[in-house]
Amino acid sequence: MENKEELYNFYAMLDRMQYIQRWGLMRNTRQENLKEHSFDVAVIAHSLALIHNNILKKDPVDPFLTMAEALYHDVTEIITGDMPTPIKYKNDQLKSAYKEVEAQAAQNLLELLPEELKGDFTELLTPDLSDEKRKEVHRLVKVADRISAFLKCLMEEKAANDEFRSAKESIEKSIHDLNCEEAEYYLAHFVPPYGMTLDEISK
Q1: Looking at the domain assignment, is residue 1 inside a domain?
Q2: CA angle 154, 156, 160 (to 5 degrees)
Q3: Which residues pair with 58 in a beta bridge?
Q4: Number of domains in the chain
């Protein structure tokens, strides 16, 4: 039987996501922390999976696994901090080095769990992409992450902050370049109400 006095720091560490600020190189009208970003990505990823399954009628993916991976997709940034995308992907050497740092950070987080839970969280933090269905889940999470970034830019632009204008244009183009039907559906049907007033949304 498990020692009742044994303490595990995993969830206390996750709680610190609220202290990791995103978009650190840019002037923000409203700061966005890692915790709220992860919730946003999880909601969008879940919706993309439902669009994938129920509207586009593709080979089904698990919407709850998609949501779970999205919720934990950036937890390594508790340790690494939020590395700005232009730096992270500046060249192959930096990209490869950062991947190694992320992998080590994931292992450090897994060590904060009891043995009985490590397998489940290994699947979320370091998914096996050799399986096609698992790869599809991972793809939707990546797309959701990009849509979340686009929405941040959109909201900053609506707040009259030109700082995010070029980022918005480039992220929007990168989403379209993916030729992702799920993303196109989301952009067409769910994005326009963002930035509406409460009265407009409530109609």
Answers
A1: no
A2: 110
A3: none
A4: 1
- Are the CB atoms for 138 and 127 separated by under 8 Å? yes
Owner of token pair 């959109």: 154
User: What secondary structure, in 3-state letters, does 132-173 show?
Assistant: HHHHHHHHHHHHHHHHHHHHHHHHHHHCCCHHHHHHHHHHHH
CA-CA-CA-CA torsion sign (192, 198, 202, 203): negative
Which CATH number is 124's domain given? 1.10.3210.10
Residue 81 located in a structural domain: yes
What are the Cα distances from residue 164, in Å, to 42, 149, 175? Answer: 23, 10, 16
Strand intervals (E) in the chain:
none
Is 5 domain-assigned?
Answer: no
| Residue numbers of the domain that contains 27 | 10-192
Is 4 within the bounds of a domain?
no
Provide the residue type at 4 as one letter: K
Tens-digit pLDDT string for the chain (203 aa): 455 678 999 999 999 999 999 998 899 999 999 999 999 999 999 999 999 999 999 999 999 999 999 999 999 999 988 776 666 666 778 778 878 999 999 999 999 999 999 999 999 999 989 999 999 999 999 999 999 999 999 999 999 999 999 999 999 999 999 999 999 999 999 999 998 899 999 98
